C-alpha cells in the first residue's frame, strides 16, 4: 500500500516533492560540473573549444532532467515551448538512463580489474543509479513523443562519437585504459539500449 502511494501520480507530481527533486538534481548538476572541472580545463587547453560541450556527460544529463521538471511544474501553453520541452524531456530520459547505468558499470568494471575502492565510488553509484531510476519513473509525466526521442537518440550517439573520436570520454579508472575499445563498444551499445528503454517506457505510459 505504501509502495503504491510513492509510485502514485498524486505523490510524484506533488509540487513540494517536484521542487525537492528539482533542487536535488540542480545541486547534483553543479557538483557534477565541478567534478569534471579538471578534464574540462584540460580539454580547453588541448582541444578545440567546441569540444567542451561533449565532455561533462553525466552533469549534462542531470541538467536535462532538472530542466525537464520545470515543464512538469509549469506546463507550456505555447506550441514552440511545448516542442522545446519535449526534446529536453526526451534528452533527460535517454541520457539519464544511459549515463546513470554507464557510471555504475564502469565503477564495477574498474574494481573487477583490480582498481581500488573509494568512498566516492559508492556516492557515485547511488547518485547515478538514482538518475536512471527517476528518469524512467517520470516518463509517464513527460509529454514527448517519437520525434523528440529520435532527436535525443541522435544527440546521444553524436556525443559518443565525439567522445571516442577525439578522446574526450569521461576519465576512466586506471585499470580500464587498456580496454578503451571495449568501453567504447559498451558505451554505444548502452546508448541504443537506453533509447529502447525510453521507447518501451513511453509505450507503457501511453497505455496506462
From TrEMBL:
Q: Does the keyword Transit peptide apply?
A: no
Q: Which residues cross the membrane?
A: 16-36, 48-74, 86-110, 146-162, 182-202
Q: Where on the tree of life does the source sit, at the highest rank?
A: Bacteria
Q: What InterPro entries does its record include?
A: DUF1405
Q: Which UniProt keywords apply?
A: Membrane, Transmembrane, Transmembrane helix
- Keyword match Iron-sulfur: no
Question: What Pfam families would the database entry show?
Answer: DUF1405 (PF07187)
Query: What is this protein's name?
Result: DUF1405 domain-containing protein
